[in-house]
User: Fold these one by one.
Assistant:
Number 1:
Amino acid sequence: MLPINDLHRHFGPLTQDLASAFDRVLKRGWYILGPEVQAFEAEFASCAGTNHIVAVANGTDALEIGLRALGIKAGHHVATVANAGAYSTVAIRSIGAVPVYVEIDPVTLTMDPTALARVLVTTPVQVIVATHLYGRMADMPAIVEIAKEFNVPILEDCAQSHGATLNKKPAGSWGDAAAFSFYPTKNLGALGDGGAISTNRGSIAQAARELRQYGWSTKYNTTRPGGRNSRLDELQAAALRTMLPLLKGWNDRRKQIAAIYEQHLSGLDLLIPRYKGSNDVVHLYVIRSHKRDALKEKLAAAGIGADIHYPIPDYLQEGFEVTPKPSLPATESWCRETLTLPCFPELTDTEVIQIATAVRTAVESN
């Protein structure tokens, strides 16, 4: 079976380098918020194009702490999308705030700026969460302009866009703050959970640093409400420092894989994404099929792993009570028909063509 992802192939060649990094930490005997975290924060700032990085325990904490650092409290309203795995919804609801769902652009699958403007006219929104999905950045120039018009801050969700750019500005540098995840399957993944908040504003960075450690302004002195224990550990920071210089090469390979798919899947009854220029970093290669479930079954029978990112809009999930439920036809149709093909840097050209051939055979046999 060709898997949807293969972390053994991804991390295996780095065994010696990672062992050296871990040995450095073990010899130092400092495991929490030490020099590795500080060095990673400084090094990753250049990738995000910002002055400040605050490393935390995971990407969902990064979203929640980022929202709290921007002043979000219980009862506030946060604009977000509903087709991106519910991570922003979880963070928003953890604070006691209210998610306000915005329709997506049916081509980019990210927040539709026109729909956002309509929402802001009718709803008092305190923050906009702009999610960069599948490696493709949202329309940040338009979203930033709308946010300025309505005087609403922006939190970018960059969990799937490490190294992506738009108009030569990196993901994570467009909004007032941004949240990153370093879950192992991300374009830049740790060997466990990890996350970070990015910002150019010192006050937001300071708030995030306090919130990640109990709300302390000084040790054992909690002065900021909403704090938690959310710290990237030294071992994960050392691993991320080892892999950060490899990110560009990995992203370039992902784009090569996308180009092969595009070439070999053309002409089929599928909606195929177009990855143009250097903006997209192809975190996931997602296609759309009216016969998604049948296609997935045929690929499995051919030994091809595929997955669904993401099958159910947030507001239709059993654990999220939303009344009244919004009407977002583009969001719902994509969730019904989206299918993810394998796309990780270690795939060979031969394997990518094998996958594309299996897709073509399955589609043409319907």
Number 2:
Amino acid sequence: MGHTEAIPILCYGDSQRGSAWLNAYRGKKPHFFCVVAFTETALIPGISAAGATPSDRRTTALADLEFLINGPRPDPRYPLPPLTAGVSPAVISRALLSQLEIPIQGINAGLAIAPTVHCIDLKGQPARCLSTGAAMDRDAVQELFNRAWALGDALGRENRDGYVILSECVVGGTSTALAVLLGLGINGNGLVNSSHSQCNHQQKLALVRQGLERAQLPNQAHPRDVVAAVGDPMQVAVAAMALAASAHTGVLLGGGTQMLAVYALAHCWATWDQLNWNPGAIAVGTTRWVTADASAKTHQLPQRLISNDPNGPPFFAADLNFSTATVPALQVYEKGFVKEGVGAGASAIAASLYGGLIPKDALNIIERLATG
């Protein structure tokens, strides 16, 4: 199939670097990693639609990871959680990645409950609620960063001929994303997305202000101290892995707001500690449902991430469209529910670059899995 027929990839942020990244990795086979973690921020009523109740949200990451790696099973240990509307984006990722035989691996950065599938274990701890201003212990954050750096370095070396996709599943993660952005001095207020159809900006901002006030961070705090105060373990792990892997291969951060915050954290950390990395190797990839969301305007966020760079990192959006879907749970993506997660956008970008999948075929593949 010609590239023009494949799933369109929209580019925001640094479009020149974005085009160079796409051209460098078109036709190359990625290795997909899903980094899972837990923050007690997820348990706040109404904070997230990734699980209908706080109890559901305790196991969302476990269920998504189990489905991503095993696919549909008659008796899963953790079934995909009921959502306010729609179906987990793990269905999108699993359908596209398995169709293209792209390898999938889970990485546990800090879950509260042990996963049911094999994962690389970074021995991180789950985070307390960001409103405490003491989400994680500073020394534990540095240790997690060091372990993740070593893993990222190894994965980068192993995947020199392709690239790595680092995705996430952290319920409440857009709230910790806003917290880390504001803690780093980046004004992301109003630009941070959510799993709700209308983003809950005021609820997030109130939580973040409470956490930052309690943290009492100095001006120009080390990024490690910011993420320890109000972040989550996934952010630490993916920032370190992306930086280390970028010295050897391409890195696609699979997610919207959460991965833009991770990029900002990684950039600040690398600058602060003068770490060796390759900024040109890293891009962020999400879905059109994130960048088209008028209640968040996330597509404007890359331009705010780096003080001396007016464009920010390349930010891609896979132009998936479910308006013609025959499965109602997929149709609601077009109404602003769910939007992204578990690397759905990055999986579609990979399906376009590596498999040349056209939108109609991609939808058929996804629908087949969604109807079981």
Number 3:
Amino acid sequence: MSVNETSPIAVLTGFFESHPPQSLGIAVSGGSDSLALLMLALDWARARDVSVFAATVDHGLRPEAKAEAQHVADICRDHGIQHDILAWQGWDGQGNLQAAARIARYRLLAEWAQTRDIDGVAIGHTMDDVAETFLLRLSRKSGVDGLAAMQPAFDRHGQRFVRPLLGVSRDDLRSFLKASDVTWCDDPSNEDLKFDRVRSRKALEHLAPLGIDVASLASVSQNLASARKALQAFAVHAAQDVSVQDRGDLIVTRKAFLDLPMETYRRLLKEALLWISPADYAPRQEALTALHLAISERRTMTLAGCVMTCGDHRFRLTREAKAVEGVISDRPSWDRWQLNGPWRDGMEIRVLDGTTLASIADWRDCGMPRQSLLASPAVWHQENLVAAPLAGLSNGWTADLLPEHAFFPLLYE
């Protein structure tokens, strides 16, 4: 049965039966996709005694946004759903507005979900979003990963997000809302041709007579997702063969790495850089190719907050000390590390400096390079060093990588 022949409720039910949450958050903008998701999820959840919460992010960029958020709040009130409005005030007028808003939206939703102890946050991406994204990335000459369908489940900012409606068209969702007598808000920016996604949406209208429509592009994208999964599995096995982890660093056998196919070594480098220097996105292919060249020429190189140092037989990827130089935490978690020990008021976590490292008598015995240790976490009380677990000064403290910072997840979900 094709996705067009599958009802929205059947698709959503099938998704949640394989990803059953104990509590569910719904991100609702007021548009048709997210409102349909809210109503469908509510019916599913109440039949199974699953708690449902809703949140609307107000980016503060349009005068209509407050009225749209209130529209959602009214619908939630009428259906007995706890609803929160999350305000963003972080736009400084610099850079890509849509990208900045997207990053802020996920961060706010993650913080909201964690405050309410919500298992997963559902977002209303549809088959149309898959097709539009495919065209956008095709114009940017993306490879398999960029063209592959969106992942149905992913983690961001320590929170689980799910997309249960990737197999449903926007038209089907709007038909469902009309039949349910639920009105939605139309964002005028969805018709503004200055945005790439809007132009992509308009292009689909002209491609449809050629058979290149939402359903066909979504199907192609899903085929590429299967290819992505196979390529990722191969890269996982390659990583197991050529690399070892060492307290947050990655040590790689140089010759075996250089013998890997281009697609495989790029995946390995991408995952390694994202693991060592937490970021939402990996460097572009050109940067990964430059890093591969530096490895082949035995040159040191910095990239994306990481440092690669290379010898004849092995190269090492580690955190760049400069990237975390001013990062200070007043909690026992820092960068990608969790510090465990006798925490007390007035303590903070920050990096070691060269002078302080030199004062630790046995730091060379820990077996880690100086460069790695200068980017490692240390516990301070005012200006007094309390502990530097990776440098051999434990004083009852340990440092462990945060659970969400796993190297090379086995497979895309």
